[in-house]
Design a protein that fits this description.
seven-stranded mixed sheet; six-stranded parallel sheet; globular
Length: 348
């Protein structure tokens, strides 16, 4: 199977594209940013771009993330596989960099700290929607049909004849594995091709350390709360999680609930500090999550996604949380043509 996929996939990154990336990056350092509360795909993609710039052309870079990396596995990844990332809540001194790159996010997406009034120099991403401002970005690789941004970075490395070292390969594999749920969610032939190639490059013991990271009791309490909050309709489910202990928990809860029998779509909502987080999951070959979340998000919130997964966030300043959640829930149920009040998933 791996050999068949290798033959089928053509890498669109050629020498012309690589030279354009090099020219856009300049002499360095290049600032590499990603979305708030970065997931493994974002962390691995940023590290891969950093590695490419240095190994191919000797261009230094700087990795900065904002928000929280709170999930136990993601913390283990950050600690063991991608320690180059540094935390900041306000990237500044942008003029001191020869270029700014956004990976796994876009300008004006609402989920990153890059100023809306500026344009980055480099954008590598795979999320819907494709915003008009991208037309003015000097270097862009935007492919929503691809399951993980890290697959795009692998193709850049491959075009430059650079093989990831075992640590980077492990980070990239884990990013691809989590974003596509082991190729079961939204994976394209490109993702499949990259998956099997990385499988032969990674450090398996290090991967196990990340995947088997210890979990606190708070994790299980949060899941119990989420299961009790879930309401099931004919082919949809909604869970308002109230206050969540970390921003990405709504996504993790949605990943679990979409596996419930006969579910076509699941929406999980929770707030952390001053932001309301939405996470939408849909069944494979069903409705497009990226398009659906655009129908239910409310201003001033922003959202994006693709295939079977999407997310959004709304600033809660001067907002009535309960009213906002009720309105979003009603929009979701209307979009899914659901009626009735739903039933608790668990009988207690």
């Amino acid at each position: 199977m791996a050999n068949e996929l290798t033959e089928q996939v053509i890498n669109p990154i050629n020498q012309h594209r690589l030279m354009l990336l090099k020219e856009t990056a300049g002499s360095g350092p290049v600032l590499i940013l990603t979305h708030d509360n970065p997931d493994p795909d974002a962390l691995a993609s940023g590290k891969a771009l950093l590695y490419l710039l240095w190994e191919a052309w000797g261009i230094p870079g700087h990795l900065l993330y904002s928000g929280l990396v709170a999930r136990a596995e993601n913390q283990a990844m950050l600690r063991n596989l991608a320690p180059e990332w540094e935390h900041t809540e306000n990237p500044n001194n942008l003029a001191s960099y020869s270029a700014v790159a956004l990976v796994d996010t876009q300008p004006s997406a609402g989920n990153n700290r890059f100023p809306d009034e500026r344009l980055p120099d480099i954008v590598i991403d795979h999320h819907h929607p494709i915003r008009e401002s991208l037309q003015k970005v000097p270097y862009i690789d935007m492919r929503p049909e691809i399951g993980a941004t890290v697959s795009l970075l692998f193709q850049h490395l491959e075009a430059a004849n650079i093989q990831p070292d075992p640590i980077l390969a492990t980070a990239m594999f884990y990013g691809l594995q989590t974003d596509t749920q082991g190729l079961a969610r939204g994976a394209s032939p490109v993702d499949q091709n990259v998956y099997f190639k990385l499988l032969n490059m990674l450090d398996h013991e290090m991967l196990i350390q990340v995947e088997r990271a210890g979990l606190p009791r708070e994790y299980y309490r949060a899941f119990n709360k989420g299961l009790l909050a879930a309401k099931v309709f004919d082919h949809s489910a909604v869970a308002y999680l109230d206050q969540i202990h970390r921003p990405d928990f709504a996504a993790e809860m949605a990943d679990l609930l979409i596996r419930l029998n006969d579910m076509k779509a699941v929406l999980c909502i929770g707030f952390h500090e001053h932001t309301l987080y939405l996470s939408l999951r849909t069944e494979p070959s069903g409705i497009d999550a990226g398009n659906t979340i655009q129908k239910i998000i409310l201003p001033p919130g922003k959202a994006g996604g693709h295939g079977t997964m999407a997310g959004g966030q709304i600033n809660l300043t001067d907002q009535d949380i309960d009213a906002l959640v009720n309105q979003i829930t009603e929009r979701f149920l209307s979009t899914m043509s659901e009626t009735g009040s739903g039933k608790p998933m668990l009988d207690v």
